[in-house]
């Protein structure tokens, strides 16, 4: 019963990311542009990442976290918590860490335009609630 209820929601997230990639090819540039626009102070943190490799693997890990949530209906809190605390060394606090998920959602929403569905909105909202709830863990 629970699985039946989760399936459309989770596939809504996966579909939104598929659209994002279909629309933009590699969404990395657009996602980091949005991050820097909203948080110009973080740009200097990536100054040594000349070829974008670290940012690529950070985005990859975040997308994998989202797709893992989409397929299982729950977050991998251990791995997410480990990455979050790892980021304290870069002075990226829990709230800013969560912003990366919001930025990816907003990029997907922008690139989908009128294809963005109510199911996608709700599914992403649920995911973001869970990411925020795990901040204190
Ligand atoms: C706005 C939020 C975030 C900021 C500002 C941020 C910032 C950073 C910085 C400064 C680094 C190290 C760069 C370097 O070594 O030169 C890094 C690495 C990394 N971040 Fe983030 N991060 C954020 C969110 C996230 C999230 C949500 C995840 C995953 C769920 C994540 C996963 C990673 C990974 C996997 C690496 C290591 C990449 C590698 O060295 O191959 N980050 N991040």
Q: What features would you describe in this structure?
A:
The protein has 137 residues and is mostly helical. The protein has a single domain (2-136), classed as Globins (Globin-like, Orthogonal Bundle). It is 73% helix and 0% strand. It contains six helices and no strands. Residues 1-6 have low confidence and may be disordered. It binds protoporphyrin IX containing FE.
Outline:
By secondary structure, this protein is mostly helical.
Bound molecules: protoporphyrin IX containing FE
Mean pLDDT: 91
Low-confidence stretches: 1-6
How many domains? The number is 1
User: Which structural class matches the secondary elements?
Assistant: mainly alpha
Listing every helix as H and every strand as E from the N terminus to the C terminus, the arrangement reads HHHHHH
Main pleated sheet: none
CATH topology: Globin-like
The total of beta strands comes to: 0
CATH architecture: Orthogonal Bundle
Q: Given this structure, which CATH class is correct?
A: Mainly Alpha
Distance between the termini: 29 Å
């Amino acid at each position: 019963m629970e699985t039946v209820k989760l399936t459309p929601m989770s596939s809504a997230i996966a579909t939104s990311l598929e659209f994002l990639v279909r629309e933009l090819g590699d969404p990395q540039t657009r996602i980091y542009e949005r991050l820097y626009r909203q948080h110009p102070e973080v740009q200097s943190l990536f100054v040594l990442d000349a070829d974008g490799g670290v940012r690529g693997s950070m985005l990859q890990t975040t997308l994998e976290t989202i797709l893992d949530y989409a397929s299982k209906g729950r977050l991998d809190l251990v791995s997410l918590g480990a990455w979050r605390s790892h980021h304290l060394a870069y002075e990226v606090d829990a709230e800013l860490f969560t912003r990366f998920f919001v930025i990816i959602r907003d990029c997907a929403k922008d690139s989908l335009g009128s294809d963005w569905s109510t199911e996608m909105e709700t599914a992403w909202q649920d995911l973001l609630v869970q990411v925020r709830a795990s901040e204190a863990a």
